[in-house]
Amino acid sequence: MFEKALTGSKGYYIWVLFLLAVIGFGATNYLRQYFYGLGITGMSKDVSWGLYIGQLTFLVGVAASAVMLVLPFYLHDHKVFGKITILGEFVAIPAVIMCVLFVTADLGRPDRVMNVLRYPTPNSMLMWDVVVLSGYLVLNLFIGWTVLGCEKRGVAPPIWAKVLIYISIPWAFSIHTVTAYLYAGLPGRGFWMTAIMAPRFLGSAFASGPALVILLCYLLRRVANFDAGREAIQSLAKIVTYAMVASVFFIICELFTVYYSQVPEHKNHFNYIFTGLHGHSSFVPVMWTSAILALIATTLLIIPSTRKSDSVLPIVCVMVFASLWIDKGLILIVVGFIPSPLEKIMEYAPTLPEAAISIGIWAIGALILTLLYKVAVAVRKQQEYYNVTEAAH
Amino acid sequence: MYNSGKVIIGIIIFLAVFALPIWYNRGAAVVPPKLELPKDEKQCVEATAYMKASHMEMLDTWRNSVVRDGARVYVSTTGKTYNMSLQNTCLACHKTKEKFCDRCHNYLDVAPDCWDCHIAPEVKLTGRTK
Amino acid sequence: MDSTRRDFLKIAGLTALGLGAKPAADAFAAAGGPRMTQNPQALKAKRWAMVINLKKFKESGKEALQRCVDACHKAHNVPDFGNPKDNIRWIWPVELAEALPTEENQYLHKFHEGALRDFPVLVLCNHCEKPPCVRVCPTKATFQRQDGLVLMDYHRCIGCRYCMAACPFGARSLNWRDPRPFIKELNREYPTRVRGVVEKCNFCAERLAVGKPPACVEACKNGEMAFGDLEDANSDVRKLLRDNFAIRRKPQLGTQPQVYYIV
Questions:
Q1: Does the first or last residue of chain B, that is N or C, have fewer Cβ atoms within 10 Å of its Cβ?
Q2: What mean pLDDT, rounded, does chain A reach?
Q3: Is the Cβ of B118 closer than 8 Å to some Cβ of chain C?
Q4: Is the Cβ pair C38, B72 closer than 8 Å?
Q5: Which residue of A has its CA nearest to B128?
Q6: Taking CB atoms and an 8 Å limit, are C19 and B47 in contact across chains?
Q7: Which residues of A touch C104 (CB under 8 A)?
Q8: Which residue of A has its CA nearest to C170?
Q9: Do A49 and C88 touch (CB under 8 A)?
Q10: What is residue A172's DSSP assignment?
Q11: CA-CA distance, A283 to A270, in Å (whole number)?
Q12: How many domains does chain B have?
């Protein structure tokens, strides 16, 4: 099946070569980091996690959101997703791989990463994160490849694949729950210590992931002549709408608790992002960008005429994705450290090598996604061709 | 076999490249390194044969005992006691690591990272990497 | 403990082979070795704790604070990068409001006005009884010893910095880059660290093992700091805590810090 990824149009080759170039650029920067140390990033004694862990958090959400296609199709027999469920599963695979790469890029001693397996420590949420993420990767690899292979041969997927699919549904929820638990259980970090961290994570994941799939569907229509179907896209748009509303609601809950209780350890972080704290305000414009994008996108999603418009929906999806990327990929992690446990403010901004490494990892994800989608679309088209010729006879 | 000529030539080229280190070193005498032993001390913490074969395992055990269990004194097979410290005990006798540790490690092409943290005598601290 | 015992036996067995004919049992019987044990002079306790007397530090002046910091950082080869981004600290002075942010209110004004408010406070790892850093470490590179010391195994740390996120006291630092060129004066009896691992105060485990008090405590000339066994009624720390009002940093988090501040 994989041979289908090796042939393509000129545009396809140029795109793949472009991604390889970006990956190479990221890799050279990673080498610099490897030999200099993490000091090459913007992280510091006070802000000890930054862009990398932010990307991990965001991408676990994207990976988990595949369940928003799998669950309606396999549990509710929502047939319009039949054509695109595989696209969801194939988003999950590069997303998890990127998660692994971001964690590795964030390690001070990547050469010792196997210590996590050599000295397994069940009381560490990080160990569970490794367990659920690698499990999820294996599940989606098996499921995606098997289902597509069966489709190619025109047979129904085997029972064991069905069983794996049912397992993957709660598993998807678990990966993002465990990721939320990484942060929500730390006694000294008021910004993170909230019981709705996991629900909030799932809410924003189920908005950003399907928004990405919608955008990819529009893209495939243009570059690969593959039509996901209007109904499928509109179904996804409804999922994004509900998830966005839920996300905004969770944020309001968060803001109420923090500002009505007035507990400084929680409030200071929110003051820092919304108004600035002690004269430090570099995150204020970033936060408001995310908030305004989220509010506009949610409004446009709720109004049926804009949600149903093929010209507005892609823009809304870009806004959803951008807003949640800022919120989760940048603010959520970094602001947990500002102010520090000693109420000091050390601001953070990613450095150029740090950004280059991150873009390189995103390019690896994009490359894997491209290859997988190439195979999926080719198989789909072949099927359609057979169906058409069979009908003609 | 299809293309048997090409395949066989390919295999031969592969084997030739794969065996390159052997061709390259053919005929060269392999001289085992001469290690400089301490002049004022005859006996290491354990028998020489054991130290030669298993010093790395012993150091590993020492390390875990000192760092994790807080037991820092080693009572040897002969009943002598030693402070378990690479930096302060081993290197107190083996004064120049270049003429002892490094010679053998280089010969065997192993690169233990002890010296990234532990300070060898007479080594200027200029940082291992830039 | 079990793994160590297994390792003794391994050494015993291999040593016996190395010696030739002598069976392992003989070697054991003859000399009682090989085994690993504590130094007889080692200071032992059921629960180590530290007392920092803010009043006395105020009397002694800021040089006293610096003496403690220097003694520690020199003893442990703690580098000085000279910038807040890379900096590594085991023990350092901060403002009172930074050390005790939750105490920053009218209460503090009333009780500490003038006397202590403007004088810096030394902070260090609290060697918590329920350390969140140990709870989150994915490799057991940071662990708690029987006597309460929270220690680092620098050989095992992968540099994930989860412990830094978990510590409510900002007591941990990563080696963001190679520390060696930034160590001013080298203590050749103690190792340095390597870039990429997290480090922090170890309550001078290496000094306790040879019967010495922590370096910072030793550097105090007028008893500004004390160290001892919290479970020993006659220890210095117990006496001080009996006769003085002492507070701890962020006790509401339930980590049970073991550094007490006399105010």
A1: N
A2: 93
A3: yes
A4: yes
A5: A35
A6: yes
A7: 343
A8: A341
A9: no
A10: H
A11: 11
A12: 1
**Residue in C84, C94, C177 closest to A39 by CB:** C177
- Domain at A2-392: CATH code: 1.20.1630.10
Residue A314 has pLDDT above 80, yes or no: yes
pLDDT along chain B (130 residues), means of 10: 85 91 77 84 89 92 92 90 91 88 90 90 53
Q: Please tell me the distance from the alpha carbon of residue A267 to that of residue B61, in angstroms, as a whole number.
A: 49
Residue B110 lies in a domain: yes
CA distance linking residue A90 with residue A325, whole number of Å: 20
Q: At what angle do helices A313-324 and A230-261 cross, to 10 degrees?
A: 40
Whether this model's pTM surpasses 0.95: no
User: Whole domain around residue B106: which residue ranges?
Assistant: 95-130
Domain ranges of chain A: 2-392
The token duo for C177 is 């880059």
Cβ contact, residue pair C189, B87, below 8 Å: yes
Residue A94's contacts (CB-CB under 8 Å, 6 or more residues apart) are A364, A365, A366, A367, A368, A369, A372
Across the B:C interface, residue pairs with CB atoms under 8 Å apart total 133
Q: What is the pLDDT of residues A144-159, one digit of tens each?
A: 989 988 888 888 889 9
Residue type, C188: R
Q: How many helices (H) and strands (E) does chain B have?
A: 5, 2
B71 within a domain of the structure (yes/no): no
Return the C-alpha torsion angle A337, A339, A340, A341, nearest 10. Answer: -110
CB contact under 8 A, C34 and B76: yes
Helices first, then strands: H and E counts in chain A: 15, 0
Distance CA C11, CA B81 (A): 15
Q: Which of A180, A213, A224, A215 is nearest to A73 (CA)?
A: A213
pLDDT for C28? 43
Q: Contact C159/A126, CB-based, under 8 Å?
A: no
Residue B130: list chain A partners with CB under 8 A: 35-36
Segment A277-287, tens digit of pLDDT:
989 999 999 99
* Residue B16, in any domain of the structure: no
Name subunits touching A (3+ CB pairs < 8 A): B, C
**Mean per-residue pLDDT, A72-97:** 90
Contact C225, C50 (CB under 8 A): yes
CB contact under 8 A, A37 and C123: no
Among residues A331, A322, A341, the alpha carbon closest in space to that of A284 is found at A331
Contact C171, A188 (CB under 8 A): no
Q: How many CB pairs under 8 A join A and C?
A: 150
Higher pLDDT, C29 or A108: A108
Rounded Cα distance between A184 and C14, Å, is: 49
Q: Does A263 touch chain C (CB under 8 A)?
A: no
Residue C125 contacts by C-beta under 8 Å, 6 or more apart in sequence?
Answer: C90, C150, C169, C171, C172, C200, C201, C202, C203, C259
**A108:C86 CB<8 A:** no
Rg (CA), chain C: 21
